[in-house]
Design goal:
14% strand, 11 strands, eight-stranded parallel sheet, single chain, alpha/beta
Amino acid sequence: MMLLVSVVAASLSAGEDLLIWQYPMVMAHDAATGYLKEDDINKPVYEWTITQVGKFDELLECGARSLDLRPAVNEKGDLIMHHGAVLVHTALSTAIKDIINWLSANPTEFVLPVVADCTGANCEQSVTALMEQMHVPVVGCSSLTNMTMGQAKNMTKLSTGGSLMVVFDCSANDYDPKIGCYPPYERSHSQAARGTADEEVLSCYGDAIYNQTAFNAMWKYMNRTSVQFPKPGSLSQLQCLWQEGVNTIALGDLYGSSLIKDETRSELNLKALQKLQDGWFKNVNLFEINNVCDQGKAIAAELLQRVNNAR
């Protein structure tokens, strides 16, 4: 355990000569959902909205160094966050302060919030104004092309410690809605309605045959994406997560599951760690996962080990 912690906490100096779009780090998917409380919304919506357990500082402590950040301006003009249609009623300033406080206690670290799907009136302008007010550097996408990790850290140092760099829409991903935990609705609806035992459920955590089918599709997708990315000058997300949709929510709810439970029941993060240890996924930049606090620190350590081994 002490060795693992020391590897994660180590300075990024071993890879500071790498371009930032080549440097591997763990990204927390829909990071703001860790601020949601179950009494904020009804339980089914909560279960199929929350992708993280913990606020930003907790996700960073669990190994994340990049945050999938989706701001929103609500009808009152407040700058908050969201996941799809669900608003996260925590001020963005509060969440950013959580990062700053964590960095002050971890002054050698670098954190990269990637802003996407900024929603509401003048959202991007509001986020930019907030970052200026909080003295948080915002960097344009064109600046990333030749920027090394060392340069990124140096140019975004905070007076309170650590480095924090916000970017807007600078990341590409190969989103595939078919990479799900459950098979097509028609195939499994009748079984779900009968209330089958968990080990018989057609899912990424139940029936052995379909379990293998789901994971084979996931690994094939990730390998394909890791060969295609990164593209020069652009950050790239390698999404290691079960995609949600109407079918997922309907079936998963019948099985008493959720986005977090889909990950833990299937042990997706643990199995992904094992694949990384076996040398899978050729190119990794932002390794994006749900439930970062399940194996996130170990995945971060493995990614840092790759950097060290490449030198």
